[in-house]
Design goal:
With about 80 residues, the chain is mostly beta strands. The chain contains no helices and five strands. Helix content is about 0%, strand content about 35%.
Length: about 80
């Protein structure tokens, strides 16, 4: 049985861009509050979603894809 969290294995290296939006008071418009580039720290060939422990985010994407993820937050 292998351990997908074994830190001696090379990292997966997948990445994604997370854009966090908010709606300013009195408007119906969403604006970007922050942009974060996520990097998967799981070992190469791992099963399941990609994981960026530094930003506490996970995502699913096919191999080689670099998706843009949107998350809306309230003030």
């Amino acid at each position: 049985m292998t351990d997908d969290l074994d830190i001696t294995k090379p990292a997966c290296g997948a990445h994604a861009t997370l854009i966090v939006t908010l709606t300013p008071a009195g408007t119906a418009t969403n604006v970007a509050r922050s942009r974060v580039v996520l990097h998967c720290a799981m070992p190469v060939g791992h099963k399941g979603p990609h994981l960026d422990p530094e930003h506490a985010e996970q995502w699913e994407a096919p191999e080689g894809a670099a998706p843009t993820l949107l998350r809306h937050e309230e003030d």
